[in-house]
Amino acid sequence: MQSQHAAPRHAPAATGPVDDRQAEAALVEHYPRLVRLAYLVLPPGLGRRRRVLTAHALAQRALPRGRTGPDAIWAHGAGREGDPGYAYLRQRVLRAALRAARRRPVPRAFPLPPLLPQVWGLRLFPRSGGADELALEQQLAALPGPARAAYVLRGLENLPDPEVHALLDAAGVDDPGGALASANSVPAQPGLLSSPEFDPCSLQARPTDLKRRRRHAKAVLTAVAALAVCGALVTLPDGGWGPDGAAAPPYAGNPAAEAALDPGRLTRIAPTAWRSSARTDFTVWPARGPLTGDRALLRRALAVWARPGRTVRVSATPGTQTGGPAGPPQLLYAGEVDDARVVLLHDGLRIARYAEPRDGARGAALDLARADGASGAGASALVVGRSDGNVRYLMAPWVEKAAQRDLTKPDAAATPLPVTGGVTAPLASPALRSGPCTSWTVLQLTDHRGTRLVTDLGELVPAHLTAGRPGAAGEVSGAAGRRAWAPFACSLANGRAAGVRSVNAWAYAEQPLPDGSGDAAWVCTRAETWRGDGTAALAQFRTPGGTVGAVVAKGTDVPACGPRDPHVLAGVLWKSAGGHWYLLAAGSEDVTSVTATGGIAASGEGPLLTAKARRGARADLSGTLADGRTISGLH
User: How far apart are CA 156 and CA 588, in angstroms?
Assistant: First the structure.
């Protein structure tokens, strides 16, 4: 349960677990802000160029080393809009920047290994600011590291002093109170902290010593030529890269493995097979694209799937095996998409996407995603390419029309999408966007069975969106379904790169506010995954007139809001316009009573509970169902 103002900016400070995938998503979304935070906290004595490189290095190393399971990472404090992943990364970046500020400078005669990001031949530094920025830079340089961090957390992060004190203490500062006091010596100027002068992601470039580089050019070219000759002798025993492209050398001559690499044995479905089949899954998709006859391309795709080499970028959705196919897979697509040659394959359980540069440059990418049991809406489209913040889909052969629409604008008309050879024109991908969420573009598909919406969450198979009570949810095809989703569309970002199969929005309660300002809406969104575990249920709260909802409680791997247990209970601390605090709790319609214990003691009949509370109070919720069972509130 979280505190909720009418228009909240920050959640209350808390300590809790963070999944490593949340941290990865937060780094992608908030990378520029984390680098700016590190740059401002680092000592100006490092010099602007070294501060830039160090700030990027600290942000890039903020993720935990290795893979950890869910709930293995703990974050202190509140992050951007209550994002625990951002809170965890900010804590790591802050601690590292303060540690760097305490280090003594290393003599130039004994340089450290080049652990910072390297940019050869260029010097990078932020753009120059005005007199105000220069004055603030000088004032911050005079502060000790902890005081500088306190000033930045106040001005850049807009955090109150208690949260700044807690973050400094968690970062290992000996005297957080003294740091806050020292920071008061510099006048508050939050607008300047966001200026280009302090943006290490917006850089100017200048060349290094050109004469020195020319003197070394001949020696470098000689060394490169020698390495090329030696590399050819080592890596090209069979006459070059060969037909397998970027694949690793074969492990053994297993007949089944060799058959899986033969383009001539690929399964190719007839273009009209889907018309007479009772199935609506990937097994009836025909092979499409202008390069389905390019045996060399198909062999490279099969070889890389079976044995990806070291230069291949491999990604897989959670719970997806990365090994090669057991036998010849089914060919879905082969063609050119933007600047790449792309091959889509299906082995009955997984979708594989192979991509290589169209200009013949070395390097390839292999993406894998589970698709077992996909049918209907789950097999209606696949991501065939992403570039420049856009995504293209390969549609199922039975799809008659494609369009795009903004999920945050339920009454706006959909925009038709041109389709060529089954591939859509590019549309904006919310999975690739960074910064604040102001819209959420989804793909609208229409066939003889009706209209449905799917959305890109950063994986090959888009997630299917539904609305309604679990077990009886329907398509988001009409205005009512779109209005149910609109205030909560941006919460879909929580499912990025999590192997999400479908997401349902269930408006389970409306609750009159105690100050008489109207009824608040309660919605539970539940994301189901392809692997089964990792499901996430989010209880979301929206006040009257609010354009967006707020996530106030979450449950991972719980049955709440799902078809197995279509019940839910959640609560929030809410502050009225008059300054009074209340506990608001709401359950689904079959909840007959609600009880709050802990920091707030209250109970009531029916699915709704309203009780006076104090700011920062915490309560445990429980509810009784009509059949006598007891359920707990989401946290």
Answer: 40
C-beta separation of 256 from 327 below 8 A: yes
Helix axes 161-170, 84-102, angle to 10 degrees: 60
Q: What local confidence, expressed as pLDDT, does residue 15 receive?
A: 43
CA distances from 512 to 212, 519, 585, 600 (A): 74, 4, 11, 20
Using CA atoms, how far apart are residues 352 and 380, in angstroms rounded to an integer?
A: 16
Mean pLDDT of 199-219: 61
Q: How is residue 268 annotated by DSSP?
A: -
The per-residue pLDDT for 50 is 85
CA distance 139 to 43: 12
What type of residue sits at position 5? H
Torsion of CA 257, 259, 262, 264, to 10 degrees: -160
Helix (H, G, I), strand (E, B) or coil at 554: strand
Among left, alpha and beta (phi > 0; psi -120 to 50; other), residue 351 is beta
In 3D, which of 96, 75, 60, 62 has the Cα closest to residue 19? 75
Residue 543 CB neighbours (<10 A): 19
- For 454, the enclosing helix (H) or strand (E) is strand 450-455
- Start-end of H helices in 363-446: none
Q: Which long-range contacts (CB under 8 A, 24 or more apart) does 409-418 make?
A: 409/439, 409/486, 410/479, 410/482, 410/483, 410/485, 410/486, 411/479, 411/482, 411/483, 414/444, 417/443
Supply the pTM of this predicted model.
0.63
Give the residue among 184, 169, 178 at the shortest CA–CA distance from 77.
Answer: 169
CB-based contact 448:398 (threshold 8 Å): yes
Q: How confident is the model at residue 215 (pLDDT cuts 50, 70, 90)?
A: low
Distance CA 38, CA 149 (A): 9
Residue 212 burial (CB < 10 Å; 0-12/13-18/19+)? exposed
**Going by C-beta distance under 8 Å and a sequence separation of 6 or more, which residues neighbour residue 160?**
none
Instruction: Enter the DSSP assignment of 81.
Output: G
Please report how many Cα atoms fall inside a 13 Å half-sphere around the Cα of residue 65, on the Cβ side.
Answer: 0
CA angle 160, 165, 167 (to 5 degrees): 95
Task: Tell me the mean pLDDT in the region 1-18.
Answer: 41
Task: Decide if 495 contacts 536 (C-beta within 8 A).
Answer: yes
What is the per-residue pLDDT across 107-165, written as a single tens digit (0 to 9) for each? 333 333 334 455 555 666 566 556 777 888 888 888 999 999 999 999 888 899 999 99
Structure letter (DSSP) for residue 543: -
Q: Residues 346, 453, 519, CA angle at the centre, nearest 5°?
A: 140
pLDDT of res. 82: 61
Give the pLDDT confidence of 36-57 residue by residue, as tens digits. 999 999 988 788 888 888 989 8
Q: Based on the number of CB atoms within 10 Å of its own CB, is 342 exposed (0-12), middle (13-18) or buried (19 or more)? A: buried
